[in-house]
Design a protein that fits this description.
Layout (H helix, E strand, L loop, with lengths): L20 H6 L6 H5 L9 E2 L3 E5 L9 E5 L11 H18 L4 E9 L14 E6 L14 E3 L2 H7 L5 E6 L4 E5 L11 H10 L15 H10 L1
Antiparallel strand pairs: 1-2, 2-3, 3-5, 4-5, 4-7, 6-8, 7-8
Helix pairs in contact: 3-4
């Protein structure tokens, strides 16, 4: 079931967005991209609460790469209510801890409302959690002027009225920036491009160009489910 939420973060029940790839997948639509590529799998959920899900991402830059998403449709994580932002951050922390078996986990989001033309073209909020094979300077992955805080929750609070933003962090710090009036705007899958360039990965940064079947994705499900 998908959920809608009141301002205090209590589940009320609600409808999915019929044109959203993630909403369709979570509703069990067999025509959703994931089920079309992996018809033999029941789902790809490796951790969940009543409000949030963690799933391996299509286009595994590194083994164990995940997405954390709200069950109900919202364009970006900063647009969640304050109580939900708090619970999201707790969930992200838990998921990152489980990903430590794969490497050094970082998180990032390119949050945007549809009319901004930002993000990757899918406007269902999602935070990437990517276990890196080695630690790297997060500042070097962020080419735009940005602010720093020790907590993801604080960054999301500061961005709660922003319709286009970037953020990246790990367990120790978070960097974030308002992209609303920045020109040229950051490209689609900005942080994936930055990581692919930094690590010179053999895999393409564009998740849409990923193989129809990824062993790393299946192995991640088996390791974490």
């Amino acid at each position: 079931m998908l959920y809608a939420y009141s301002e205090n973060g209590q589940a009320q029940g609600g409808a999915m967005m019929s044109d959203c790839e993630f909403c369709r997948e979570f509703a069990g639509d067999s025509d959703a991209r994931f089920y079309s590529q992996y018809p033999g799998l029941k789902n790809r959920i490796v951790q969940e609460t009543g409000e949030f899900l963690a799933v391996p991402t299509l286009g595994q830059l590194f083994p164990g790469s995940l997405l954390v998403l709200p069950r109900h449709h919202v364009h970006a994580c900063a647009m969640l209510s304050a109580p939900l932002r708090k619970r999201l951050c707790d969930f992200v922390e838990s998921v990152m801890h489980r990903c430590e078996r794969f490497g050094h986990p970082i998180f990032f989001e390119h949050g945007a409302a549809p009319h901004t033309g930002g993000s990757c073209g899918i406007y269902h909020a999602h935070i990437h959690i990517v276990p890196l094979p080695t630690k790297t300077s997060l500042e070097e992955l962020f080419d735009y002027p940005n602010s720093r805080t020790s907590a993801l929750e604080h960054a999301l609070s500061r961005l709660s009225s922003v319709e286009h933003y970037l953020l990246i962090g790990d367990n120790d710090r978070t960097f974030y920036a308002d992209m609303t009036h920045v020109q040229p705007a950051p490209p689609s899958q900005y942080f994936r491009q930055q990581l692919a360039k930094t690590y010179r990965t053999r895999l393409h940064w564009d998740w849409r160009a990923a193989p129809a079947y990824e062993k790393d994705l299946v192995d991640t499900i088996q390791a974490l489910a």
